[in-house]
Design a protein that fits this description.
The N and C termini lie far apart (55 Å). α2 packs across α17, α3 crosses α12 and α3 runs parallel beside α17. The chain is an alpha/beta fold. It is built from 17 helices and 21 strands. It folds into two domains: 179 residues, Rossmann fold (3-Layer(aba) Sandwich); 168 residues, Dimethylsulfoxide Reductase, domain 2 (3-Layer(aba) Sandwich), CATH 3.40.228. The strands form five sheets. Strands 5-4-19-18-17-6-7-15-16 form a nine-stranded mixed sheet, with helices on both faces. Strands 10-9-8-13-14 form a five-stranded parallel sheet. A three-stranded antiparallel sheet has the order 1-2-3. The structure holds iron/sulfur cluster. The site of iron/sulfur cluster has 13 residues, from α1. Iron/sulfur cluster (SF4) binds next to α1.
């Protein structure tokens, strides 16, 4: 049995790079250091592997690539979506393809943290790496997120329990506060749980900013939280040495969306008049920050980019995938390493099932079930190497631990690009 060290897990945005994977031939026998989610990802890599097919009929990868190139080269307003669970070289190829066919290109951020990206674009972000949080943070606030279930090793690798340079006793040197609309399993790791009324995050955060500026509020509570509790939370934030506020989809996908995140970012900014406070989003997929980084590098924008006029246009609401599909504007779709059909609202999912859809994925999903063409690929981080960006924008190499009978996402996209290019040239 061969031991492979420093393996990276692409399941969630913590993007752990310290896994030990034991392999025999093309089978993974054991995984050490991973959480339950990461371990299941590696141990089940042979389950539900996608089968190459066109309109439900099993065929060769080559035939699927040819059919995909035909669909994309014929399309007038194609959409490319997904990309958060693949590696950066494949992401770069997807953008090249979008440019070639004049597509809209959008990522899974569109239905999770895009309001965070819009808020950061609007008011900026006081931020740092997870390494700094591990070594410096003595006060951690988790707002509208549930790391115990969604990012299991965040607490143990970077935030709550690890011993750091300025917090040598780990948890004993830290205070942890959870703010949410319900008590989740993450509350067990917290010293204090503050329950707020659903949909009142903007109100609570804005009230905190007012209190911080010395305003007196003539009410007893805001968002279900007594003013005395908000004052005591502010006092903790003002007097800590290094405060770190983390937010999740409780802010981005509830009423207020980017306004909630803007209020949190402005609160963190205001607190820097008293002490060091940073704020960072709890990003979901293992390389969702990678696609935002590569797309911004290539086009200037992190999601919802349209290339149909030969230059990048950015407009969430116009070029975001759910809107393009719900308005029935996209006439073909290429979904890469994502399950759009399972996650989109009904009107968007229905249109996806009506138009020619190509699914490039290592695994079967609801999207592969409705796709016209299914192209299975080697799973990034297991059977395909590359690069990923952790939730704090740190680039991390991604290893291959076992072989796959299928090509990588990057290879498939490269072959589609070659075929599309030749079809377009022949038509001129
Ligand atoms: S915390 Fe996330 S990245 Fe780390 S092992 Fe678990 S699922 Fe993988």
């Amino acid at each position: 049995m061969e031991k492979i060290s420093d393996v990276t897990c692409l399941f969630c945005g913590v993007t752990c790079d310290d896994l030990e994977v034991f392999v025999e031939g093309d089978t993974i026998k054991e995984v050490k250091n991973a959480c339950i989610l990461g371990k299941a990802t590696f141990m089940n890599h042979k389950a539900d592997v996608a089968i190459p097919r066109i309109k439900g009929k099993e065929t060769s990868i080559e035939a699927c690539i040819e059919a995909s190139a035909e669909i994309l080269s014929q399309s007038h307003f194609p959409l490319i979506y997904g990309l958060a669970s693949t590696e950066c070289n494949a992401q770069r190829k997807a953008i090249e393809l979008a440019d070639l066919i004049g597509a809209s290109i959008d990522t899974t951020s569109s239905v999770c943290h895009s309001p965070s990206l819009q808020a950061i674009q609007t008011v900026g972000d006081s931020t740092c790496t997870l390494g700094e949080i591990k070594n410096r943070a003595d006060l951690l606030v988790f707002w509208g997120c549930n790391p115990a279930e969604a990012h299991p090793r965040h607490f143990t690798r970077y935030s709550v329990t690890p011993k750091g340079y300025f917090v040598p006793r780990g948890k004993k040197d830290r205070q942890v506060i959870l703010v949410d609309v319900r008590k989740t399993p993450s509350a067990k790791a917290a010293d204090q749980f503050i329950q707020i009324r659903p949909g009142s995050d903007y109100e609570v955060l804005t009230a905190m900013r007012a209190l911080l500026k010395g305003e007196e509020l003539e009410v007893e509570e805001v968002g279900g939280v007594p003013i005395s509790t908000l004052k005591s939370l502010l006092e903790k934030l003002k007097t800590c040495k290094f405060g770190s506020i983390h937010w999740g989809m409780g802010l981005t996908m509830s009423r207020g969306k980017h306004m909630n995140v803007m209020a949190l970012l402005l609160l963190a900014r205001d607190l820097n008049r008293f002490t060091k406070v940073v704020a960072s989003p709890m990003r979901g997929h293992g390389n969702v920050v990678g696609i935002a980084t590569v797309l911004t590098w290539q086009t200037g924008y992190p999601f919802a980019v349209n290339l149909s006029r030969g230059f990048p246009q950015y407009n969430p609401g116009e070029f975001s995938s759910v809107d393009l599909l719900a308005r029935r504007e996209a006439d073909a779709a290429l979904i890469i390493a994502a399950d759009a059909f399972a996650n989109f609202p009904r009107a968007a999912a229905e249109h996806l099932s009506r138009i020619p859809t190509i699914a490039i994925d290592a695994k079967e999903s609801m999207t592969t079930k409705i796709a016209t063409v299914v192209i299975p690929t080697a799973q990034a981080g297991i059977s395909a190497p590359g690069l990923a960006y952790r939730m704090d924008h740190i680039p991390i190499p991604v290893k291959k631990v076992v072989d796959s009978p299928y090509p990588s996402d990057q290879e498939v996209l490269k072959r589609i690009i070659e075929k599309v290019r030749s079809k377009l040239q022949n038509r001129v």
